């Protein structure tokens, strides 16, 4: 009988010294991959053990459902930081481990001997992953912050125009930045591991949550502004139709192109709205006819609206929440939600599926201190150098030598392969002249501009360091070229709808015949099976279907789509799945299929909704700019006009602790608040939130945003200006950390490009080493490498199989 294959991270030991969602999700990702994660807590336990977003009572000795989800498959150890013997035990665990994940928030992690720099000095073999709001260096490194204020600093609250312009901007609900930071921290830990395998010494992985927010909540706005001298959007608006009320629930319909708008007009029986020569913008016209659109939807059931929109190839989805999502046919058919192994409530399955399946089912979360006595340290592996230095010597890029065929487009897929390209892989971005990457076409550059398809800031920002080859694989000659290219690549990543590659003869089994050890990452919207298999899946559709939209917006209005999260979230989760597949191949020589559905990744970071409803019967709902953690938490208008002449200037204030409340009272001159016993805890402040909001509104209104930030941050209160996205680069923290690098593009010009939200010690090279490729720029180089002659390449170009400009 053949033994079952081990999980990819079997034998990899991680010490979890984190607190909160970000660190817990990072270490959950590692534990799901087979790592031995030892959660070390002070005697009072991680605050997540008593957490419930709905306020459900957690009995003494029990754990909150979210903790039970996030701590699955981990072991639990308790250590009192003031007890020398207990502290020595923590040091013994660190000495025998491979990695440690650290964040502030517990007495243990904040002990002087267990700060990241001290751990790194004492244990140079360790990967030390530190997750902090702003990063470990820079002028803001010690500033107080919450997920809410980080959204404001990132530009993600105003985003790409989200929200009712008659009201304050609205944050994205669900603490999404914490989840995204955890996903990036897991990726950084596993990337650092590659350097350790090569050298025997560890790395410091410095994760900035602000930089995660910038990458995932905005759409490369600084590059856009630099290259086109205008912001992506200058005003906020409600997308129409967007989320609308049908007869039996909420449904979302999105028009990302003019053709989809024309099809929508035909679908609702108003072809007279279609006038290609009408000078009025589609978004403006949609606003004018919105009442009739909403009336048409209101007369129909959600299922009927979705069926009609699908028939017209218009992106659509039901808007799910924690109560409804588990009953949706796609997720029921795929077994997306599974019982928690300890407490029985429903929770999301893994965000990716590997074939062969080497991950197994999660094990129960540990009770507080459950393994304190039984947890034994293991001996250090023989290849580990006891005399290893601090590991800060410049190292080769971690993916140097890896060749990747990038069959992706738009944002989700390219964001995954961009991580590989920035970290050293040779990434060959496959397009065709008939279907260039869609991000080349959506920047609003007029077709009268010379080589307009090369001027998109979005394509430029997503594809640095890549090579471009154009092959029409709908032709037989194109398919022959593609077979040769697959044979020459280690990894294939694609994000077409499932039928595209399969109809062309390039499903996973076909790829395996060409290259037996190939790793194929497929990123469908809804998965490779199920009734929604072939549905179109733009970012906002994924947000609607997963529950991310449900928690965003004001409670007296329909929710609004985040409009950004679905794509980059899918990209980083697919990257994590790919890292596991690479480790499996390193150990076994075997290739792997990674099915990383966009919606599964989104469901994981929105999973608290299902968990709370299943465990406690509580339906989490949107609450404008308030939230479950801080009180007060809201946006307050300042005295300035915004740069567009409007009154859209705001600050974000979030009080997360009683100490911060006292500091706020002192800074705004309200001793009556400070002395009011009813306001001394978060529950009391939440009861009187309206009253506090009124006082803070009056205090903020005559002041500028800079004045408010200076006064409150100095006092120790989390505060931020609500930045327009293209102004995020003006924060001194991002500049000090070198988050932006300048890139010169031969057609688009010179601009600043965001990098990664991770800093690796010893990384001496820039992330952006070459501009994004011109269309078909590397055709000759790549095809010559496949053995084609100059005459053969010229013939392919003459026949339109390859090319360097769009076909139409």
TrEMBL record:
This is CoA transferase. Residues 356-395 are annotated as: Disordered. The keyword Transferase applies. Residues 368-387 have a biased composition (Basic and acidic residues). GO terms for molecular function: CoA-transferase activity. Signal peptide: none annotated. Keywords: Transferase.
């Amino acid at each position: 009988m053949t033994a079952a294959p081990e999980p990819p991270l079997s034998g990899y030991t991680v010490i979890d010294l984190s607190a909160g969602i970000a660190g817990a999700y990072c270490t959950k990702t590692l534990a799901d991959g087979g790592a031995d994660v030892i959660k070390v807590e002070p005697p009072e336990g991680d605050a997540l053990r008593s957490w419930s977003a709905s306020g459900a009572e957690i009995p003494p000795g029990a754990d909150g459902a979210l903790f039970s989800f996030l701590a699955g498959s981990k072991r639990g150890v308790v250590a009192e930081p003031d007890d020398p013997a207990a502290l020595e035990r923590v040091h013994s665990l660190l000495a025998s481990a491979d990695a440690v994940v650290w964040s502030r928030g517990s007495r243990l992690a904040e002990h002087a001997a267990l700060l990241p720099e001290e751990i790194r000095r004492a244990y140079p073999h360790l990967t030390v992953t530190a997750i902090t709001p702003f990063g470990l260096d820079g002028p803001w490194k010690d500033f107080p912050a919450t997920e809410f204020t980080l959204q404001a600093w990132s530009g993600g609250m105003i985003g790409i125009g989200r929200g009712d312009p008659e009201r304050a901007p609205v944050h994205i609900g669900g603490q999404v930045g914490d989840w995204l930071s955890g996903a990036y921290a897991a990726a950084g830990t596993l990337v650092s591991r590659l350097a350790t395998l090569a050298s025997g010494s560890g790395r410091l992985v410095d994760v900035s949550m602000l930089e995660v927010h910038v990458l995932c909540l905005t759409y490369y706005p600084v590059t856009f502004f630099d290259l086109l001298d205008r912001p992506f959007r200058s005003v906020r608006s409600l997308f129409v139709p967007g989320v609308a009320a049908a007869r039996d629930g909420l449904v979302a319909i999105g028009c990302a192109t003019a053709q989809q708008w024309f099809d929508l007009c035909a679908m609702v029986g108003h072809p007279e709205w279609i006038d290609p020569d009408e000078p009025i913008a589609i978004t403006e016209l949609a606003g004018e006819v919105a009442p009739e659109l909403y009336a048409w939807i209101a007369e129909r059931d959600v299922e009927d609206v979705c069926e009609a929109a699908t028939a017209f190839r218009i992106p659509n989805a039901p808007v799910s929440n924690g109560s409804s999502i588990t009953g949706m046919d796609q997720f029921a058919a795929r077994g997306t939600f599974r019982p928690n192994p300890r407490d029985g409530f429903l929770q999301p399955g893994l965000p990716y599926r590997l074939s062969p399946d080497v991950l197994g089912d999660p094990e129960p979360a540990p009770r507080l201190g459950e393994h304190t006595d039984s947890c034994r340290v293991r001996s250090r592996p023989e290849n580990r150098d006891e005399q290893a230095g601090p590991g800060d010597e410049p190292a080769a890029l971690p993916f140097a030598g890896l060749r990747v065929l990038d069959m992706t487009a738009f944002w989700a897929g390219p964001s995954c392969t961009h991580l590989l390209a920035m970290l050293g892989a040779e990434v060959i971005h496959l397009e065709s002249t008939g279907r260039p990457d869609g991000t080349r076409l959506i920047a609003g550059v007029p077709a009268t501009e010379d080589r307009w398809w090369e001027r998109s800031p979005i394509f430029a920002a997503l594809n640095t360091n890549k090579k471009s080859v154009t092959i029409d694989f709908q032709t037989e000659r194109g398919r022959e070229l593609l077979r040769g290219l697959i044979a020459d690549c280690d990894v294939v990543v694609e994000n077409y709808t499932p039928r595209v590659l399969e109809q062309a003869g390039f499903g996973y089994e076909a790829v395996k015949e060409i290259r037996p050890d190939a790793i194929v990452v497929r990123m469908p919207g809804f998965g490779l099976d199920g009734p929604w298999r072939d549905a179109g899946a733009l970012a906002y559709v994924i947000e609607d279907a997963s529950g991310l939209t449900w928690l965003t917006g004001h409670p007296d209005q329909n929710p609004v789509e985040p409009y950004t999260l679905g794509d980059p979230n899918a990209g980083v989760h697919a990257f994590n799945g790919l890292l596991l597949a690479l480790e499996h191949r390193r150990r076994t020589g075997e290739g792997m299929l990674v099915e990383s559905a966009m919606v599964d990744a989104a469901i994981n970071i929105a999973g608290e909704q299902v968990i709370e409803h299943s465990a406690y019967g509580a339906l989490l709902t949107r609450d404008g700019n308030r939230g479950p953690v801080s009180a007060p938490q809201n946006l307050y208008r300042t005295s300035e006009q915004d740069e567009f002449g409007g009154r859209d200037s705001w600050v974000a204030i979030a009080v997360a602790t009683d100490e911060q409340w006292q500091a706020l009272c002192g800074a705004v001159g309200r001793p009556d608040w400070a002395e009011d016993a009813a306001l001394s805890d978060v529950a009391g402040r939440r009861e009187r939130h309206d009253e506090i909001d009124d006082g803070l509104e009056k205090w903020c209104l005559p002041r500028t945003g800079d004045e408010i930030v200076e006064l409150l941050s100095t006092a120790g209160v989390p505060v931020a200006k609500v930045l327009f996205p293209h102004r995020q680069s003006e924060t001194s923290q991002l500049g000090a950390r070198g988050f932006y690098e300048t890139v010169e593009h031969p057609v688009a010009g010179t601009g600043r490009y965001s990098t990664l939200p991770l800093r690796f010690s010893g990384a001496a090279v820039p992330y952006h080493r070459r501009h994004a490729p011109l269309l078909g720029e590397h055709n000759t180089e790549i095809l010559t490498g496949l053995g084609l002659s100059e005459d053969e390449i010229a013939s392919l170009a003459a026949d339109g199989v390859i090319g360097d400009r769009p076909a139409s």
